[in-house]
Amino acid sequence: MSLIIDELEQLEVETVLEVYIEHAGYEHGTPSISNISFRVKRGELLGIIGPNGAGKSTTIKAVMGLLKHAKTSVSIAGGSGKYAYVPEQPVFYEDLTLWEHLDLAGAAYGLEYESFTRHAEELLARFGMSKVRDLLPGGFSKGMKQKMMLMIGFLGRPDVYIVDEPFIGLDPRATKDFLNLLEEERKRGAGVLMSTHVLDTAEKICDSFILISSGEMVAQGSLEDIRQAAEQPGASLFDCFDVMTS
Questions:
Q1: Mean pLDDT for the chain?
Q2: Which of 122, 135, 160, 234 has an alpha carbon within 20 to 30 A of 241's alpha carbon?
Q3: Does residue 10 have a pLDDT over 80?
Q4: Is the pLDDT of residue 7 over 50?
Q5: pLDDT of residue 5
Q6: How remote is the C-alpha of 153 from its chain's centroid?
Q7: CA distance 151 to 105
Q8: Using CA atoms, how far apart are residues 176 and 204, in angstroms rounded to an integer?
Q9: Which of 80, 61, 135, 76 is nearest to 102 (CA)?
Q10: pLDDT tens readout for residues 49-64
Q11: 86 exposed, middle or buried (CB, 10 Å; 0-12, 13-18, 19+)?
């Protein structure tokens, strides 16, 4: 009995995000997604893949509790954890500078100012944004705005990162910086839930996947699990995706 209890306690420690979505949508009685469940363990990167309109973004919104018409069960680090969200489309205040955005995020995360300042300056340098720290983001390029979203997310060092299409607008150097930071956070023990269309990159960096099509989860697990579900031994993630969503 004690062995079983120990195993259950260990599972609670390892699982940083546990999700069950019975149904969720934008109108009452018309669910966009249903019967989606998954877990993210410490250090794990789980990729959500699927065609446009399949329900990837809806799944992310349901996880964060942003949908009025949803029946879900979501637990982050046993109910006491924190998450950071990096949206596909940058969201910012027109009258706040980049540094003021970071400062506001630091306050929301409850960071001590000295710790915030040190980490924010490190992020600015890492993403090559130090020279524009006092400028308004309205004049930034798409890639610069996306970098700002990433910096705000990384600032809080949460238990879970929820990232929606992070590669859009990023140049190769920024993509490398993002992936390196993500790897560091995973080593720290953070879990990552990431939606992406960039399947070649997803195949390289994700530990596991959920494939959503027409609002339902049609495959789940490692790349090998996806290959078996698609009956495509040795195939790429793209080829499996093509077979299971055509």
A1: 92
A2: 160
A3: no
A4: no
A5: 38
A6: 10
A7: 10
A8: 13
A9: 135
A10: 999 999 999 999 999 9
A11: buried
Neighbours of 235 (CB within 10 A): 16
Residues 6+ apart with CB under 8 A from 108: 156
Q: Give pLDDT, residue 1.
A: 40
Q: What's the average model confidence in pLDDT over 13-28? A: 93
Write out the two tokens for 148.
Answer: 């700002």
Sheet of strand 208-213: strand arrangement? 83-86, 160-164, 191-195, 45-49, 208-213, 216-221
* Residues contacting residue 140 through CB under 8 Å, at least 6 positions apart: 98, 132, 148
| C-alpha–C-alpha distance, residues 85 and 66, integer Å | 12
Residue with the two structure tokens 């966009």:
32
For residues 207-215, average pLDDT:
96
- pTM summary value: 0.90
Whole-angstrom Cα distance, residue 85 to residue 142? 18
Rounded distance between C-alpha atoms, residue 59 and residue 138, angstroms: 29
